[in-house]
UniProtKB/TrEMBL annotation:
Its EC number is 5.4.99.-. PANTHER family: MITOCHONDRIAL RNA PSEUDOURIDINE SYNTHASE, RIBOSOMAL LARGE SUBUNIT PSEUDOURIDINE SYNTHASE D. Gene3D superfamilies: Pseudouridine synthase. Residues 93-243 form the Pseudouridine synthase RsuA/RluA-like domain. InterPro entries: PsdUridine_synth_cat_dom_sf, PsdUridine_synth_RluA-like_CS, PsdUridine_synth_RluC/D, PsdUridine_synth_RsuA/RluA, RluA_PseudoU_synthase. CDD domains: PseudoU_synth_RluA_like (cd02869). The keyword Transcription does not apply. Belongs to the pseudouridine synthase RluA family. This is Pseudouridine synthase. Pfam families: PseudoU_synth_2. It comes from Fusibacter ferrireducens. Responsible for synthesis of pseudouridine from uracil. Keywords: Isomerase.
Amino acid sequence: MFINEETLKLEYQVESKEKGLKVIDVIASHMHISSRLIRKCKSNHNILLNQKKTSVNQIVSKGDIITLMLDHDENTFEPNPIEIDIAFENADMMAINKPPFLVVHPTKGHPEGTLANAISYYQYRSNQNFKTRFINRLDRDTSGIVLIAKSAYAQQFISEQMQKDEVDKIYYAVVEGVVSEDKGTINAPIERAEDGDILRVVRPDGLPSITHYEVAERFNGYSLLKVKLETGRTHQIRVHLAHIGHGIVGDHLYGKCSDWIDRQALHCFEMSFRKPRGNERIVVNASLPEDIRKLIEVLRNL
């Protein structure tokens, strides 16, 4: 079991069931370290057994301490004084409630003033220094939870869960029209409309894409949906809801603009995953932002 909470140091105490295994077996199968990271630690002599450098073929005993020292990768983003809403943080990762209209990381069009720059500023103020590794991303106009890893180990651990669809992702969306069925599943492959195009469409040769939804509330001509992603394609919720005739309110790309909100009414409300250094499941929530709450009030009073 893991016995420490330090960003760039992993310490694991060998349990009875692991007695007689090689160091490499414990690291790979019980600490869940990727082969790439093992090779890197091995080549840099960053694997210790009971505080001494060791061969990865050394046999372990109950109570032995295996230590991996992770490389320190410098933060490369300029700090910008932007406040962030931290929903969860430990030595390995952060979960941030991203507001709408904030770009996740610098681009040609947005070289600064991004979430990455805000995290850099937070690091400066909290006396931390880690490379910001985004595990998931949200569109500029979508609000809600963004996960950030503080080390290559944490990124690999949670990204593998993402790839296996083991991370539960729940969104809220306000959509056009009254959705008649209380619950439903949209199973429709998604692909780019054209090569290099940002627009995605449902088409037979697309990637498998599955979205589950249930109606949280119905209004006069609109619906509030609770949406759960089974897969995570670019623009998946926006494409799927438009595909079934219930485009997201304010979505100018896949629907139409709204007089009541100046972005798509889509919010990543909850994410659930196994945290690094153990199998404990973490559930992170981010409350609905003010603009979506106001939109819902308007629709209730139509």
